[in-house]
Amino acid sequence: MLTDNQRAEMRQANAALDALVVRDTRALIGTLDMNNPPAAARAMQRALPAIVTQYGNVSATVASEFYEIARDSDNVRSPFRPTLARGAAPAQVSAVARWALSPLWTPDGGDAASIAELGRNLNSATPRLVRVAGRATIERNAAREGVRYARVPRSGSCGFCQMLAGRGAVYHSKETAGGHDYHDHCNCTPERIGKGELLPYDAEALFNEYAAVTRGLSGADAIRAMNLHAKEVEARAIARVAAEDQAGAAARDASIAETLSIGASTADAIAAQAAKVAQAVQARAVAKAAEEAKAAAAAERQAATAAGKERSAELRKLADDDLDATLSAAYEADDEIAIKLIEREYTRREKAETDKIRARERRAMAKEAEQERINQLIADGMDGYDAVEEVTGITFERQRMREIVAEARAYGDTGRTFDQIARERYRTQVAQTYVEAEDVTNGRLLNAEGQRRADLPPENPLHLDDAGLFTGPAAFAERWASSELREFWDSIGGRDTFEDFKADLVSRTGANRRERQDLYR
After folding, report:
1. Is there a contact between 194 and 150 (Cβ–Cβ < 8 Å)?
2. 484 vs 482: CA distance, rounded Å
3. Which domain holds residue 505?
4. Final residue in a domain of this structure, among 223, 239, 255
5. InterPro entries from the entry (predicted)?
6. What is the model's pLDDT at position 301?
7. Residue 389, in any domain of the structure
């Protein structure tokens, strides 16, 4: 918990911040066109959020500094780093701007009285908006740390503030009604209250006083009664100070200062100390603001880079004609960023095209050099397939596969793979072999049992198709082939499966490779 001196330093720092805010709001008022409310409203909506954000960051920094001081005095050993809370919501700032300008929209808007009222509105509400960040910093860090905070009033606080302060250190959640409400010119400050710490004021006395003054009243009537009572108490205290003897005034300054928050004899000392605190806080705030500005600039650059990459990706999808049209539109709109991105895309395309041409040239030169080397090896007596494998590393089998695909394409058979072409050739050979086998065996392809099953109707599950003798598994042929068919297979080098046929097509030792090659070209 803060000491009385530390609490006074915090109030003085906030008072100095209020003075800076009022200075800038007065400067803002001086720039407004009071005879043109719409223009004044637009200017206000642009400038006021900047003021609130700038000084709100300072307010949050001040609050975090004193939160750490309060925590250090509590001798807490667990690590904890206060974070800065966000300031007033944009909608809240916008609403205050509209309310502050309301005098300009009256029939007498623009006269001295309405301008003065506008100034009072703005100079009272803007400091409250700025302090939102500081107060929220204390409240939210208390919630993060798991401790409570109390609303600490000053002597002479209004009835509303005294009523809330009388509740003690109970404000630790969003559900605590009223604990987050502050009015214009409110000097109450939220303060961290550690576990086991006493309040820096007599909450029970405030509560009892409020209960006594507002007995039988409620709502606004109770608040008005408490306000009147607070003013009477302050007036009596001031009168008592004035009536006391001059000689005893110095000794009583401390108690008067406690009653009125700041005594006359200590005002200069506190002001000097506050100036030091304000200067130190301002230096820290400037450093932190600079760090945040640097981070924000980095984030903006990152966002701009991401946006540029996204637009570049979209430009890459455009055809050349569409890209030309997009460039013309960018010139008409004077969109320098778009122009640069499009010019960069033109450069990329030109480079890509140049790279393609150079790559083709390199491949052509390499292929030409390979062919020269192959021709030389063939001239020296090496087999053509071996020469190609020697120079390129492409095996004989791969060369044959490429040749077969190239031959098929030369006859208009495009789009099919080697396996597809080989299977088609295999089916052709099977059909030819079937016809030859029928002729040689006089139609006796199946053995006796197989023939009986072949004679069954096709819908019968036991029906047998003799085509399976040539294309089915080897076990099928072994069981159902006739002796005549077996002799025929022996005469032509055996029954070919598809895998055998395909291997023969690309093998140097394939028994029928050349014959098949000549047959199916």
Report:
1. no
2. 5
3. 410-515
4. 239
5. VG15
6. 66
7. no
